[in-house]
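This part of the workshop introduces the protein records we will be handling. To make this concrete, we reproduce a full record directly below.
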Amino acid sequence: MSVTVASALRAAAARLTEAGVPDAGRDARKLMAEAMGVPPDRLTLVSSEDLTREAADRLEPMVAARADRHPVSHILGRRAFWGRDFTVTPDVLDPRPETEILIDRALSGPPPRRLLDLGTGSGAILVTLLAEWPEATGTGTDMSDAALAVAAGNARRHGVSGRAEFRRADWLDGIDGPFDLIVSNPPYIPLADIADLAPEVRLREPAMALSPGPEGLEACRRLAGGLARVLSPGGRALIEIGAGQGAAARAVFEASGAGPVTLHPDLDGRDRVVEIRRSERDST
């Protein structure tokens, strides 16, 4: 018995709603579009058509995975970030819209010759900046070999692999500067808050990319202690932080003596990015 696209879409949305998936209708449309091989905004045009057996066979396991609270990005294998699609897997943190604030702040300054992305994960930050700055070179570091492989693949995907180096490193340990720009989206969720996260995050994303420890600022403390050593005179560092961490993060970086500290808000007005500028005259 044939089933129309509209009927199958309603059934998929109902199944996701029953599983507790937020925005079930939106996710059902994304999965249906993927199964049919059409852009999501064209589904309305084909809603009265019969869903082919091939599309139905592709849709079923995707809806089952989403009902089991796998993120849509993991099911599709990609996530949009700053106008580009990036490969994502359970080995890396999904690029999030909040991190685009960091990209915006980076691009508001002078193009660096050499930049460093600490805890690169999918490589979305480093690859985006290299794609926007065709003369720059960059290094991405991570403690996860699997994440480094994903990042290297994204560099190839976006044509910047010849200007990107990826290496295993524990934050700044073993890293030699100078770098004109240092960027990082480190883990910043306090350990006690992990239990309150959505299942898509708590169960499906790498724990080491979510929380650095009880305080949530442990990674920032590690970074702050080494910035002056690897940041060029006149260089900048941009570090993403969690909501409500602005004042405490400012104090951490000011205490390090790396340079003046500025806080930049996200679109909701919450402190989201810490910027540290090293003086042009500082050659220590």
User: Anything to note?
Assistant: The chain has a mean pLDDT of 95. The first strand starts at residue 78 and ends at 81.
